[in-house]
Sequence to fold (103 residues):
Amino acid sequence: MSTIPVDLMQDRYWRGTLHLFLNQPRLKSVCTTKFIDVDGRTIKAEALKRQAQPWSHSEKFMLHLALHLFNERHKVNLSDMDFLDPNNKRLAFQAMQMRFEEV
Fold:
């Protein structure tokens, strides 16, 4: 992926999403221009969901959370956080805080 513009890292809809894509191992593997266009400010959500079909329940949750933080039309069930290990749970809480905190 090309360099991420500073304004995206400060944008409330992008920063939590990018935090997950840059720090969660499975999401990092799909953090490419094939799925994320930082210049065009778009994410190919349906293509990512297709790519994630064989993933574990917790990996899919992390993807759904990242997409939800980007755009609320992508739904996520927060109760599925029960499936996360401590590291992924920490990343999820950090990303949610990035999305919902006042800047």
